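Action item from last meeting closed. Structure (283 res):
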């Protein structure tokens, strides 16, 4: 499952904010029962999220449950069981191993109405989780990976923006090796810093990331633009496809074109909506 470029997180204990998030033009919405909710508000948050799920008709709607091995996660699943099938699945924080994913998958199997329908989006936000990224990505039901930049940066004592490029590259490799879309980067917490949001999003995309967690609807447009193919990328991709469609192995500027270059060109045009994922022209 492709989560798209914008993954909007919303605290589950604010009914009005939940309502606005569900109506926002984000590619994916995540209703939060974990870090975005104070411990004393989690009972209220579960009730709000259950009501929202029961009434929701939105694709790519997830709930972030609490971490594995906690009583809070057990309470989350007990509350969500009747309605979780209205959503796409769960976001799992602090994922540390493939075994954790398997245990959550077993819980989902006992809840869902259609076998295999509910998906898991692990958040890799610890050093242990980063070392286990390959097995986490390859586990059953995993739809995509999220990099939890704030927790991981705190553990490593580095900047979330400038100190985690090695982690981003590692997670992107793990995701693609497992056949997943590029991972989702963590949030840019400075809501009024549009320049920083765009700059760090472009850097993240250059490392193989598909999109980003968004904390406020005002960040949706800048993030969507940053992770979209740039106009010059699209123009170059068109040239590659046109040249190879005509049987040429070289572009007009003399650049050699081989199969990986052609595959990348088709992927760029598919992302831009100009061709389907199989390389055929879009309707």
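Sequence:
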């Amino acid at each position: 499952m492709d989560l798209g470029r914008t993954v909007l997180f919303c605290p589950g204990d604010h009914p009005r904010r939940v309502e606005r998030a569900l109506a926002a033009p984000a590619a994916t919405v995540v209703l939060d029962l974990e870090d975005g909710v104070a411990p004393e508000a989690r009972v209220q948050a579960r009730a709000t999220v259950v009501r929202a799920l029961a009434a929701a008709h939105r694709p790519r709607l997830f709930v972030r449950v609490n971490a594995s091995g906690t009583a809070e996660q057990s309470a989350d699943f007990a509350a969500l069981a009747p309605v979780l099938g209205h959503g796409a699945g769960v976001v799992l924080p602090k994922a540390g191993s493939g075994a954790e994913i398997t245990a959550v998958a077993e819980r989902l199997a006992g809840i869902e109405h259609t076998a295999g329908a509910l998906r898991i989006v692990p958040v890799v936000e610890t050093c242990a989780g980063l070392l286990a990224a390959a097995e986490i990505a390859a586990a059953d039901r995993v739809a995509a990976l999220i990099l939890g930049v704030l927790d991981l940066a705190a553990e490593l004592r580095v900047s979330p923006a400038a100190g985690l490029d090695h982690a981003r590259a590692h997670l992107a490799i793990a995701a693609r090796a497992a056949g997943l879309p590029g991972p989702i980067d963590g949030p840019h917490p400075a809501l009024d810093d549009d320049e920083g949001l765009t700059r760090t999003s472009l850097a993240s995309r250059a490392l193989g990331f598909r999109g980003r967690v968004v904390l406020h609807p005002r960040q949706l447009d800048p993030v969507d633009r940053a992770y979209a193919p740039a106009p010059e990328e699209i123009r170059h991709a068109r040239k590659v496809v046109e040249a190879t469609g005509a049987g040429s192995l070289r572009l007009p500027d003399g650049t050699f074109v081989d199969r990986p270059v052609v595959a990348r060109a088709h992927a760029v045009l598919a992302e831009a909506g100009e061709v389907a994922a199989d390389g055929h022209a879009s309707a």
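Note appended to the action item: Residues 231-245 form the longest helix (15 residues).
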